[in-house]
């Protein structure tokens, strides 16, 4: 639906999953059916200049019949100044509609475990782990941003892939030349080194949003690794080790609780990457709900609904059928 055509008169709740690369809005009717789904660009205030316009643009499409809204926003809780700006943007847009606001990874953790204890490792444009004991205690690991963090993220995988490519092109790496042809072709670049070098620099010089563009390269690395490209597999195994370190650190901060781990984010849609982490941390638990489900659970409670196990199972099926993406 478009903002112009969206009219809901019956009671409903809504949730927003505001990530670094995209922001998702889902509106749910009381009967469990989806009234609206909308998506826009990233709303992380640390690196998205249009974050406020995108966020408020979605919120202003909500009907007055909306009973509650659950929001998980990238960057929330990481800077007092930016938190205040995020809170202002939400409160000004929603008016009298009740809402809850938390970090997007906190919301994803609640969704993955249905509110039960666990460690959620998220790898999308950035990376972070969030652990909860299910009783209100939580901790976070990572999430420091691309300048000095985000290990195991799509951005780091993409950047490492570009580094490997340049080392092959200028002769610093002669062992991983098998990476050159498939990766350059995946990027739409010529595989001939004499042509690839200027084409790569041209690609770089025309980037409008470098962080997102570099992060998008991770999916090529994943595909190549799945297809048996050894250098690509090495890149993903290194990312897996970083993410496994996140999980172990989060578990160590919750002593006395045997925490399972689960996953969220586009990067961890890669079976190769998940299996590489599992080799170090044990098999993951499949998420009960995608991240947006955590916001819907919170909004349901706030609206006085009963989001029990049966409700969560039904919501999981509804969101999966909608195929909106993770």
TrEMBL record:
Matching CDD domains: ASKHA_NBD_eukNAGK-like (cd24007)
Keywords, alphabetical: Kinase, Transferase
InterPro entries associated with the record: ATPase_BadF, ATPase_NBD, Euk-type_GlcNAc_Kinase
Domain ATPase BadF/BadG/BcrA/BcrD type: 16-277
Keyword Glycoprotein (UniProt): no
UniProt cross-references to SUPFAM superfamilies, sorted A to Z: Actin-like ATPase domain
Molecular function GO terms recorded: kinase activity
Family matches, as PANTHER family: N-ACETYL-D-GLUCOSAMINE KINASE (PTHR43190)
UniProt-recorded name of the protein: N-acetylglucosamine kinase
Organism (species): Gluconobacter thailandicus
């Amino acid at each position: 639906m478009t903002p112009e055509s969206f009219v809901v008169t019956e009671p409903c709740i809504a949730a927003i999953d505001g990530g670094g690369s995209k922001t998702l809005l889902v509106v749910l009717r009381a009967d469990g059916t989806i009234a609206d789904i909308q998506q826009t660009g990233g709303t992380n205030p640390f690196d998205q200049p249009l974050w406020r316009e995108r966020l408020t643009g979605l919120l202003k499409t909500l009907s007055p019949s909306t009973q509650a809204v659950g929001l998980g926003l990238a960057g929330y809780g990481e800077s007092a100044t930016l938190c205040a700006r995020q809170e202002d943007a939400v409160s000004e847009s929603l008016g009298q509609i009740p809402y809850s606001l938390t970090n997007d990874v906190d919301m994803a953790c609640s969704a993955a475990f249905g509110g039960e204890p666990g460690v959620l490792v998220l790898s999308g444009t950035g990376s972070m782990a969030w652990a909860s004991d299910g009783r209100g205690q939580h901790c976070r690991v990572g999430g420091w941003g691309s300048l000095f963090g985000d290990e195991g993220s799509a951005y780091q995988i993409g950047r490492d892939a570009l580094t490997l490519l340049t080392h092959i092109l200028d002769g610093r790496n002669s062992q991983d030349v098998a990476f050159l042809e498939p990766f350059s072709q995946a990027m739409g670049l010529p595989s001939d080194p004499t042509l690839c070098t200027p084409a790569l620099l041209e690609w770089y010089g025309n980037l409008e949003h470098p962080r997102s563009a570099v992060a998008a390269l991770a999916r090529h690395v994943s595909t190549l690794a799945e297809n048996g490209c050894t250098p690509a597999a090495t890149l993903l195994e290194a990312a897996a080790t970083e993410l496994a370190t996140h999980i172990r650190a989060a578990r160590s901060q919750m002593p006395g609780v045997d925490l399972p781990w689960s996953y969220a984010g586009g990067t961890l849609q890669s079976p190769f990457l998940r299996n590489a982490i599992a080799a170090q941390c044990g098999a993951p638990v499949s998420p009960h709900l995608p991240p947006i489900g955590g916001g819907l659970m919170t909004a349901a409670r706030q609206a006085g609904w009963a989001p029990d196990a049966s409700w969560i199972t039904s919501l999981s099926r509804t969101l999966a059928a909608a195929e909106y993406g993770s």
